[in-house]
Amino acid sequence: MPNRLRFAPSPTGELHVGNARTAVFNWLFAKKYGGTLVIRIEDTDRARSDRRFEDLICRNLKWLGLDWQEGPDCGGPFGPYRQSSRTAIYARHAESLLEKGSAYRCFCSEEELGRQAREARRAGVTRECPRSCRKFSAREVAQRLKDSQPPVIRLRVRSGKVVFQDLVHGEMTFDSAVVGDPILVRSNGMPTYNYAAVVDDGLMKISHVVRGDDHLSNTPRQVLIYEALGWPLPVFAHLSTILGPDRTRLSKRHGATSLQHFRDRGVLPEALLNYLTLLGWAPAEGQNEILSPEELVASFDIERVSKSSAVFDAQKLYFFNRHYLKECDSSRAVEWAVVHLRQEGLLQEVDSEVRQWIGLVVEAFLPGLDHLSQISQEAPQLWSFEAEEAVQDEGVRQVLSLPGAARVVDELRNRISHEERDLVGEWPSIVQSVKAASGQRGRKLFHPIRVALTGRDSGPELDKLVPIFEGGSQLELPHPIKDCRARINEFHSAMLSRGLIPSCSH
Fold first, then answer.
1. pLDDT tens digits for range 79-118
2. End position of a domain, from candidates 350, 378, 406
């Protein structure tokens, strides 16, 4: 039997990292063993399902680097690939189960079932289907169909053990008594999740069901439905739960964890793909964790999937992202930087000259970024320079309290005062002359120069910032950029006004 796997999201919201990890493992398995990946949309919850979310899920899976051979967007031999378009198929197979006696119509009202559930809770016992409708004759069923509200269709569960093999958890055994008689089709004609999933997986020839272990409790019901339909079982593999840093189930309280969120932040798809693969799986001992998509496929082995829950750590994801940012093509990084700077209103028209200048910005700031959206948080220092505010900053004040700091700023201002000086070309010699005149070196030299030029006590290399300030001041940008002379003169004046530089030295 050829390897056929499926990823079956519900289009009721954005795709989060837990479900995305499931999609990745299915994709890796299919790629590794030359199988087929099917995308199936489980949209029987009509009140919450939205085609907008379906489109977003598919777009983000493609952005992540995944591809599939069958699905609602590309068709295939076992369609349709949306459950909402398969209701006639579910009805046909339910009717077949009724005819075989493997299922029965249950006429118990919702009110009666609710009363029984409340009584069970008060008694501290598990609620079970009363199964009284199992005994109805064909004549009684016909009469109730005529007189009563539409029934549900339930599986007639056999007694005994339910056993199946799981690639992650090994042999799993359940007593069918704990399953009850699950509903297959609701009274409104809509299938339940467990029934629709089995019919779809069976008819679509799915050989391996790889999903989260939150579905492990569903599997005994599904095994019994497979048996009732007379279909062979697929191979199951239930992936461990993803936890937050506090080791509780990953949820909204841990912050946004959707693929779209990380995409918007400027996390590279190859970084996210690499990290998601390591949630519950590890490469062979001694192998590097930084792996390209091709290396991930070659290394993947579902036998090494861990039973233990995996912890999603955004900081480790950003560690991977920093690596891939440094490795990515500069033009690619520039395009993303343009997007984020536009969102902040810092750019409008982007011609070749502006794009070249953004390349300098990216080169300067990229080594210090966890994700590309931070460039719109860090780069505003290029546009915003208020010397009076800067000299009040605690970090800047600590720099200016260093012995000789005022002398360094004063000497720097003197050496850039000549308008004809090419600050970009002469910057190294200017710094050397300030060093000689002030007698300062190392931190006592470069930190005062930094705060005078940027208004901050840390940041990218000054040799990279000077061309950015000088070049940016010549561009027509929504927010003008001050050149180096303007910045240093303003900072020098702010120090004078606050008595940080003796007036006699000027």
1. 999 999 999 999 999 999 999 999 999 998 767 766 766 7
2. 378
